[in-house]
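This part of the workshop introduces the protein records we will be handling. Backbone structure tokens are a discrete shorthand for how the chain folds in space. Once this layout is familiar, the rest of the handout is easier to follow. The record below serves as our worked example for the rest of this section.
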Amino acid sequence: MSKKIIYYPEVTILKSYDTFVAIKRTAAEDMVTDQHYSKTTTRQINEFFGGAEKAVMVKKVTQETLDIIAKFLEEYHNCPDEVKAKILNYIEE
């Protein structure tokens, strides 16, 4: 499968061929990679944002930025609750 959509409470992530390519966030601006990969990936991104007209308006960020954010979110949501609490406590300080 070339497309995977990952759902978390505050964010939805689109992976295409094991590469993070777009993020929809509830409390912040949506993001899409500035890297062009293929027609298939472009179509997936357009579908993810509800059409090419909407996708073109999304903030473009470097692939590195998208990877950092998406990998952090994956790790965060896969860690035990006590670790999540420590992270949230640290952020709030």
User: Anything to note?
Assistant: The helical segments are 39-48, 52-55, 63-78, 81-92. The chain is about 45% helix and 25% strand. Residues 10 and 27 are 7 Å apart (CA to CA). The longest strand covers residues 19-25.
